[in-house]
Amino acid sequence: MYAAQSLPGPLEVSAAAPLPEGSRTALMVIDMQNDFVETGAPRQVSGAMEIVPAIANAIERMRVQGDLIVWACRAYSLDGSNVEAARKPQFLRNPYAVAGTRGADLVDGLNPWPEDLSLVTPSYSAFFRTDLDLKLREAGVSKIVGCGVDLSRCVRATLVEAVSLGYECSVLGPAVASRNDQALNANLADMADLDITVEE
Fold it and tell me: Under CATH, what is the fold of the domain 24-199?
């Protein structure tokens, strides 16, 4: 049996980060790249090709409203030097989303505009080791709508972190895909429990 130990000294409560200010919404389009979307691609996500029209429609609608479009993508080195440790063995067996290759390009039908925000993400959350939070605050964004792939990984990780940073968040149900319907539905339900609105 281990004896209970008291924590040393009084615990200090760290100050919360200031809430995002502004009234703009950002649509985050996550990992809609050929190697994750096209049929037969190395890391094809089930149903990813089918959600392209829904994402394109959301982009068009939100551009008219003056919202910010954010493109979060992967761009790996062929030697795997910038791949997450957990993914590296699999990546080295069958590389995907390699910078400068067609596999890392956005899928046909989704086209960035010069005024959009684009970033390369080094891990599941688009906020991890990027300046995304700063850029969104500078743009006056207080709400984030997520779409893309894979819902159970990068989309979910990004929106959960966004909630922690004080953003109002939602996920566009018809514009996300995951490895199967069970994973899709389970993650949508979990995200609703985390105060992320599921839009239909």
Answer: Rossmann fold (3.40.50)
